[in-house]
Design brief:
The protein has about 325 residues and is of the alpha/beta class. About 35% of the residues lie in helices and about 20% in strands. It has helices at about 20-30, 60-70, 115-120, 130-135, 135-140, 145-155, 175-190, 235-255, 255-265, 275-290; strands at about 5, 35-40, 40, 50-55, 80-85, 95, 100-105, 105-110, 125, 160-170, 190-195, 200-205, 210-215, 220-225, 300-305, 320-325. InterPro entries: MEMO1_fam.
Amino acid sequence: MKLSGVREAGKADSWYEGDPDVLSNQLDGFLNDVPASVNNSDLPISGAKVIIAPHAGYSYSGPCAAWAYKCLDLSKSKRIFLLGPSHTYYLRGCALTKFAQYATPFGNFVIDEPVVQELRDTGKFQDMPIYNDSQEHSLEMHLPYIYKRVSQTFSSEEEYPTLVPILIGDNKGSEEKEFGALLAPYLRDPDNVFVVSSDFCHWGDRFSYTVYAQGGDVKNLTSLTYKTRKPTDPPIHESIKLLDQLAIDAIAGGHHDDFINNLRATKNTVCGRHPIGVTMAALEALAQDSSDADKDKYKFKFVQYQRSSLVEVFSDSSVSYASAYAIV
């Protein structure tokens, strides 16, 4: 199928600044606030070809996302795989774009048509409906950041990597492993980088998630109601942090099954759990096939954790954000 058309930057002036000069200065500010080194390594981190970063409005998650993007090593990249969850329609399996280009306020990304066709030819992927593709913020919120980092890395637009956007649907653990195995060869290829789009805990009655760790004990989970207005042992925001830390630890451990089991136990509303799961499965497959004894490879290292607000009472709500990188 021939790709065609341009996916417009539909979230500009709503989720992020539409003026390219204002947006560029904002992203520069976020990136400049990140230290020059992380985990005793200068940034970007050599070989950090995979990141997890949030996808909320930049006023909320932009500073957190900057940590992942400043770690990302784009020096050898020829294409960027962008994996995000579907917010606009229910999706089982995974889906590919039908657009030929993705627009940003800075310029357009060219979609890597040969790779998209390779994936489509496996028979494992659906096509994103045009409307849903255009409205999906889990993909769009990464495009200005990617373009900013690409423009900092390469001297001319002719060198800019192509883009491979993939929506990852509501899949079971075994299905995530199948897609992970399918994407593992692309992850192994030194020409490719992966950007994984996910926020973490969405807490509050409006998200239908009010889980609380009584006494700070994650083995003693309950759901708060309006009758339990303001627990203090611990404060709600500290309980949220405990729940997120369990998910973060499971991801950093590098075992896909552990992450699945964590979500099953806590029901944590990690909206990009399936893109993360597929990527973890791909990394785990590479680790199993590798004789490389480097323990720093094939596992995510988290470098930042933030929340949109610090919840204290039942009527409050918050969304958590985390940034991580993996060396391949």
